[in-house]
Write a structure and sequence with these properties.
This protein is an alpha+beta fold and 96 residues long. The protein has four helices and three strands. The model has no long low-confidence stretch (mean pLDDT 94).
Length: 96
């Protein structure tokens, strides 16, 4: 869930927490701990304006998100290669 939150804030602009929460379809009770963990880690910052809370990814958060996405790309690529190899091994030989 924290990865999705970071993705939604990747443009590094301020965004209301209720907007992010709504996109993810989470209750406040389930959403708040993820935001707090990201904030404590230094990956996002929050700003209160009256009753509104706004969130923004930090530079550190964007760096970490970029690293995670690169690793996920490698994982997906490796998985695709393994599936292709397994599929090729299961294919019956061509008849002449």
């Amino acid at each position: 869930m924290r990865l999705f939150i970071a993705c939604l804030l990747a443009d590094m602009r301020w965004c209301e927490d209720v907007t992010v929460q709504g996109v993810l379809g989470l209750s406040e009770r389930k959403f708040a701990p993820h935001v707090e963990r990201l904030r404590v880690a230094g990956y996002l910052e929050s700003q209160t304006e009256g009753r509104r809370v706004k969130l923004r990814l930090t530079t550190l958060g964007l760096d970490r998100l970029t690293e995670h996405v690169k690793v996920l790309n490698r994982v997906a690529s490796t998985a695709a290669e393994l599936v292709a190899a397994q599929r090729a091994a299961l294919r019956p030989p061509d008849r002449l």
